[in-house]
Amino acid sequence: MSLYATLVLANILCLFDQSLAASTPNIVFVLADDYGYNDIGYHGSQIQTPTLDKLADSGVKLENYYVQPICTPTRSQLMSGRYQIHTGLQHGIIWPEQPNGLPLNSPTLADKMKEAGYSTHMVGKWHLGFYRKEYLPWNRGFDTYFGYLTGSEDYYKHTRGFKFTSKAYLDLHNEQGPVKNESGHYSAHLFTQKAIDVINNHNEKKPLFLYLAYQSVHGPLEVPQHYEDKYEHIQNKERRTYAGMVSAMDEGVRNVTEALKSKGLWSNTVFIFSTDNGGIPKVAGNNFPLRGHKGTLWDGGMHGVGFVAGGVLKPDRAGKVSKDLIHVSDWYPTLVGLAKGSFNGCLPLDGVDQWDTINSGMPSKRLILLHNIDPLHQRSGLPLYPNTWDTSVRAAIRSGSYKLITGDPGPGDWTPPPDSSDEQPKSNDVTSLDKSLYFQTETSSLKNVWLFNITADPTEHNDLSEERPEVVKAMLTLLSKINATAVPVRYPPFDPSSDPAQHGDVWGPWE
Ligand SMILES: *[C@@H]1O[C@H](CO)[C@@H](O)[C@H](O)[C@H]1NC(C)=O
Ligand SMILES: *[C@@H]1O[C@H](CO)[C@@H](O)[C@H](O)[C@H]1NC(C)=O
Ligand SMILES: *[C@@H]1O[C@H](CO)[C@@H](O)[C@H](O)[C@H]1NC(C)=O
Ligand SMILES: *[C@@H]1O[C@H](CO)[C@@H](O)[C@H](O)[C@H]1NC(C)=O
To answer: Any signal peptide, and if so, which residues (predicted)?
Structure first.
């Protein structure tokens, strides 16, 4: 080949590369932790979130958006596009002592983005298993990783307690191994800095996929003092600290979006912000006026904060509010679709592509949403429709506007934000809080079927189950049909060999 021909070819390849980059957008997904419905400015919160408000106003607010009631389930559905009943993760979180993980039998969102030619990076909380090397985020589609493998770390020390000894061990890693020199660096700052490093080092020959999963605003309640100083008007100390934590996250998002803009990436970026589940009033999060909280099947546990922004959205979508039913499992097909990727090798997805709904206002293709079926949750009450569905089993499902709950949904109170100094929290111990959240049962009542029209009654005050038995029956039949596709629950016993003391005083694979 002549030199000229070689040069022409190189030019064509280069052009092809650039047009590939231009035709598929950068995708930046920011996930907040335990961030309540009533903790964002535009929902009328007492907490100020100028960055999130402005970003949401520049794009589409998702106001009929659902996540899962707890952490691992939401993250597993984001990464797999599949319901918990199809991954075996229907019961709870993945505890760090459990030999468990998001099954390897279907590719992750990151696998698919990488396959579609993206440069893929994750910063923050994984929580999808790490007992064997294959489950680590950098072996599941991410080119680089920096963050926590499990949950409930200390914001400064980046440590997490081991159940059997109560000793705390480091849980901060990158794809090369444990990161031991960042103690004292508040995680909202640290993760923001790492995300900005990814953006600044990004080679624009490829599109960027960045998944930034903040620790903020999960307990423990910790924040540098100056963030909470501006909330002197909030008298409750815990709520004030929590508000400061939200402000630190809001500032982190500002810094990340500014980095995307200075690098010139924003105009070709889809930016998504989402919570992982509802807030916990006991650790100062708030979902009012929604009913219930994190860990429950009431809407306060899973009707999440979420919006989409970025230069890729059509200009006339700015300021739009979507009332369409959208679920966290929908991001998988939506984002792989935007990446012009393939679904080869995927087990059947439960998510639907929502891009036309988000970017063009077309009606959502999602008519049914299975919130969950958890056969291991303690049963509650009598099986009322035994030939259709055992109503003592914990489950919830949406069909159009109707929501049906069976079994024990968890505490269903409506908790306004604390404003007065006489309200003291019951406990600051997150581990025992976690336990009461995940294992609490409403034994006081044997009632185990509820039906709501969520469109008319988003706060779940008006139970229709007695008025509309035919709707109850139809939805139980639907639940039973979907249940027939469930896989067995993976919830192995805690393994003492997970003890970090046995492998370098760091959380990590032990099998
Ligand atoms: C920790 O080490 C990494 C890698 O050497 C370095 O990039 C980073 O700046 C260090 N952090 C601190 C706080 O010194
Ligand atoms: C955001 O950037 C400002 C200016 O560099 C810095 O002072 C602040 O700590 C950063 N905040 C976070 C959460 O990273
Ligand atoms: C759900 O399906 C499983 C497995 O097929 C079955 O064992 C269980 O009884 C079903 N649950 C209910 C409440 O029907
Ligand atoms: C639910 O409520 C909405 C709003 O009031 C109403 O338009 C709709 O018809 C109701 N759905 C059903 C199935 O009754």
So the answer is: 1-21
